[in-house]
Write a structure and sequence with these properties.
The chain has about 140 residues and is an alpha+beta fold. The chain has one domain: Hotdog Thioesterase (Thiol Ester Dehydrase, Chain A), CATH 3.10.129.10. About 15% of the residues lie in helices and about 40% in strands. It has two helices and six strands; from the N terminus they run αββαββββ. The protein has a six-stranded antiparallel β-sheet, covered by helices on one side. Strand 1 and strand 2 form a beta hairpin. The radius of gyration is 15 Å and the shape is globular.
Length: about 140
């Protein structure tokens, strides 16, 4: 279970994203794509790349108030070259209001090559329950 994200996120846990840094409007995450995360060209699927960038940017947005949630309002991703090997995402909170966050982030491969860049807008939401309770499954 990934607790370093401030909440248990089953999809993030399934994909294996690792939080490296999460402070003061910046985030850094690491991702080692598995064979089932590849596309027909044997490189990381664009949907996995976008998900990784979405979580990276949302983490940057939440890093200034880790008790808040952030949901994606919009996101634009530019793919520059195939994403191969261990991937690193770096996010930055560019501007924030009381209810919105505007972020950008870049994904690089293990050779330091930029593979994708994204910008996104997030809406801050208060959590109704403790982060560890968000995705518990009832056994009844």
């Amino acid at each position: 279970m990934q607790e370093s994200f401030g909440a248990y996120i089953p999809f993030v846990d399934h994909l294996g994203f690792e939080m490296v840094f999460f402070e003061d409007g910046y985030s850094e995450l690491r991702y080692t794509p598995e064979p089932e995360h590849m596309n027909s060209f044997n490189v990381t699927h664009g949907g996995a790349v976008m998900t990784f960038l979405d979580v990276t940017l949302a983490s940057a947005a939440r890093s200034v108030d880790k008790g808040m949630g952030a949901v994606t309002i919009e996101m634009k991703t530019s793919f520059m070259q195939p994403a191969k090997g261990v991937l690193t995402g770096k996010g930055r909170l560019m501007h924030r209001t009381g209810s919105m966050a505007f972020c950008e982030g870049t994904l690089v491969d293990d050779q330091g090559r930029v593979c994708a860049h994204a910008t996104a807008t997030f809406k801050y939401l208060k959590r109704d329950v403790a982060p560890t309770e968000l995705h518990e499954v009832s056994t009844d």
